[in-house]
Amino acid sequence: MDERLLAHGLGGAKDLPLSLDLAIAGAVAALVVSFSVLAIAWRRPRYDAASSGRPAPLWLDRLTSSTPWRVGWRAFGIVAMLYVGWASVAGQDTLVNPFLGVFYVLVWVGVMLLSVLVGPVWKIISPSRTINLLLARLSGSKPGEGLYSYPMRWGYWPAALGLFAFVWLELVYPSSTDIGAVRLWCAAYLGIMLLGGALFGDTFFAHADPFEVYSSLAAKLSVWGQRDGRLLVRSPLANLDTVSAKPGLVGVVAVLFGSTAFDSFRESDRWVQFVQRSSIDSFVLNNLALLAFCVSVGVILATATMATGVAEGVRRSALPDLFAHSVVPIIIGYIVAHYLRYLVEYGQITLAQLSDPLSRGDNYLGTADLGVNLWLTYHPEFLARLKVIAVVVGHVLGVIAAHERAVQLLPAKHQLTGQLPLLFAMVGFTVGGLYLLFAS
């Protein structure tokens, strides 16, 4: 297997046989035109969580809310965890171990993109939620209730820290492909989740599980929603508008967006040459750069959203979290642009490896002989256009989501002018993101 796949060597200039200037000009024009159209045609709020959407077909609602459906997916999550955990303990400590592919590819990229299509996947299959449920049943308590109430002032900050811990392991830690290191990270993650579940119940997972929070945010771009326990079908933008604006949401999107940008940046020739010439250890430089990217995104977003007049009763300090949902489409756009080929190609390798978890010639799942389809590699122009489209569409949807929130919250005289700083920030994100895609 090519080690470059696991090192994310899949998204650089060689894949983008397009003009950088043309791509940037087109993207900026799309944002400006979108904002101009919204300013003229979208002057009143259009989304209301209490009334948006329509009920899903009754049979589908009954199926997805049924006990066998939920138990089946919970069982799948536990069995998958045990199977992959077995591979991590008994398998070879090499890149052919499927544990790495499942962790870095199928979970981190695959589950999140799947959530955009079908809803919050990780919440349904989460092993920590299932174990917490079983322990609660054995002890006679309720899984939704812990020993204490979750401090809502914490919001999503624990998830932001967990996400940063993941991207640090993936992008900065020198031994990120060592089975032992990744296994230790997963053990620590599971231990923290089980302890948090025991203390605070299921509320802890909804706010502190990095994978669940990420998956649930991605799911807000799906057509599936919930209201009063009933499955709904509604537009992705209406779904996105239901994101809970809680403390730490800016931190979550800043880590997700900033780390993806850093992943492109660290592969750029300029950064590689700078690190090689510098007298400072590369590990220290990469740590500082990752932190700088994440903090910069958060600061830019906070500054841009607070640079406006506010209506009576709206705290200016609350605006960053209230507008942070508009960055979610941008994150998904960059995930598609940066990781799509990685997911498709290394994902196929992982499926083959899963049939032979101990690397001794087994074929437990019948996929050991699965070939790797390199169609995306052999069609770089298609991949290039897809990447640029994903970035642009993500930003346009972000502009729409921000505009809707602005007409909901801001006084009439600031509904347009108040969005200008955020529009400038999104233009900057677009230019910087496209530049990094081309430069890496």
Shape: globular
- Order of strands side by side in the largest beta sheet? 1-3-2
Order of helices and strands: HHEHHHHHHHHHEEHHHHHHHHH
Structural class: mainly alpha
For the sheet with most strands, the description reads: 3 strands, antiparallel
Helix content: 55-70%
The low-pLDDT segments are: 1-5, 7-15
Detailed description of the structure:
The protein has 440 residues and is an all-alpha fold. The protein is 67% helix and 2% strand. The chain contains 20 helices and 3 strands. It has helices at 3-6, 20-41, 58-65, 67-90, 98-118, 121-125, 127-139, 157-171, 179-200, 202-208, 210-219, 236-240, 249-265, 269-277, 282-306, 319-323, 328-354, 375-378, 380-409, 420-439; strands at 54-55, 224-227, 230-233. The protein has a 3-stranded antiparallel beta sheet, covered by helices on one side. Strand 2 and strand 3 form a beta hairpin. Helix 7 (127-139) crosses helix 9, helix 8 (157-171) crosses helix 11 and helix 19 (380-409) packs antiparallel against helix 20 (420-439). The two termini are 22 Å apart.
Describe, in short, the structure shown:
The protein has 20 helices and three strands. The chain is mainly alpha-helical and 440 residues long.
